[in-house]
Automatic annotation (TrEMBL):
It comes from Streptomyces abyssalis. The chain crosses the membrane at residues 66-87, 128-151, 163-181, 187-207, 228-249, 255-279. It comes from the Bacteria. The lineage of its organism: Bacteria, Bacillati, Actinomycetota, Actinomycetes, Kitasatosporales. It holds the Pfam family UbiA. It is found in: Membrane. One of its GO terms (cellular component) is membrane. This is Prenyltransferase. One of its GO terms (molecular function) is transferase activity, transferring alkyl or aryl (other than methyl) groups. Keywords: Membrane, Transmembrane, Transmembrane helix. It is a multi-pass membrane protein.
Length: 308
């Protein structure tokens, strides 16, 4: 039926379909972006938004300014990880068939051509939003880093991979803070410390993917150094980070019941992670350990709301 109007004045089916096309398309794009991003939200969108909230409180913004800042932060960090996820999955389809068969290019939720079109769009939208939010320099730094990481081979050796991801933490957290307040000497110790800690422990994510990484010729930490030495190193790192988080992040806030509680929570998470990497060694267990690492990262940045 092609009629566009009816005697009753109601819209014909064709007209109704045209009206609903745009919201359906937008919803589908949101769904597809979630499918690409779902594995990384707790390492980017959630913790970075927590740090932006800490900056809002630190700057003493009013309700309207705070709401606008946080409303910009969430889509910014969604695009932040979306571009990285797209290029990672575009260049690693065969790896994902082995390690992460739930990803959309493997399941067919997106075509390869569609993913490339979305990547091109993100390359434009992400820095544009960064410019609107006053963090263009950090947006461009992140784009450079993930191009070095994925497109130019940085992901193939553990040292370059860990370094580029750690520098990405600087781009992430500096942008989160600068949306609300200047990045001053008060916050740089947090950013630099999170960068260094990320460099030390980010290789935990490679424990679960050894089979696929070896098949693709990647030189990750577990492949180069061996599984057990890596696990001992990660466990020692988690224990060694306890005095670092206390001295750099908790102690400057003074002695209060809530700083004691934060110290205790961080100690519990770090010791849990040290035990997990040593004792739980199947790929499924390593995947859950990586989830705990992301929760640890989020918790540390969430504490900035009260510690800074």
């Amino acid at each position: 039926m092609t009629t566009t109007t009816r005697p009753s004045g109601k819209a014909a089916p064709a007209t109704a379909g045209a009206v609903l096309w745009l919201p359906r398309r937008i919803w589908r794009e949101i769904f597809i972006s979630y499918r690409f991003n779902s594995n990384d939200l707790w390492s980017t969108v959630v913790p970075a938004s927590c740090f932006a909230a800490a900056a809002v409180r630190y700057a003493g913004l009013g309700p309207y300014e705070a709401a606008v800042t946080l409303a910009g932060a969430v889509p910014y960090f969604w695009l932040f990880i979306y571009g990285s996820s797209l290029i990672n999955q575009i260049t690693g389809v065969e790896e994902d068939r082995l390690n992460k068969p739930f990803r959309p290019l493997v399941t067919g939720d997106s075509s390869l051509a569609g993913a490339k079109r979305r990547l091109a769009a993100v390359h434009v939208l992400f820095p544009a939003l960064g410019w609107l939010l006053g963090v263009l320099e950090w947006a461009l730094l992140w784009q450079l880093l993930f191009m070095l990481h994925y497109a130019w081979g940085g992901h193939r050796h553990w040292f370059a991979k860990n370094l580029l991801i750690a520098l990405g933490v600087v781009a992430q957290l500096a942008a989160a803070w600068q949306m609300a307040a200047p990045v001053t000497a008060a916050v740089w110790p947090w950013i630099v410390t999170m960068c260094a800690m990320t460099f030390l422990i980010i290789g935990v994510q490679d424990l679960r993917d050894v089979e696929g990484d070896r098949a693709l010729g990647r030189r990750t930490m577990p492949i180069v150094l061996g599984d057990l030495p890596c696990r001992v190193y990660f466990a020692a790192s988690f224990v060694g980070l306890l005095p670092v988080t206390h001295l750099v992040m908790v102690a400057p806030a003074g002695f209060h019941w809530w700083t004691v509680a934060i110290d205790a929570a961080l100690a519990g998470l770090n010791l849990l992670l040290a035990a997990r990497v040593l004792l739980l060694r199947t790929p499924a267990q390593d995947h859950r350990t990586q989830r705990v690492v992301e929760w640890w990262y989020t918790f540390v940045l969430a504490t900035a709301v009260v510690l800074l």
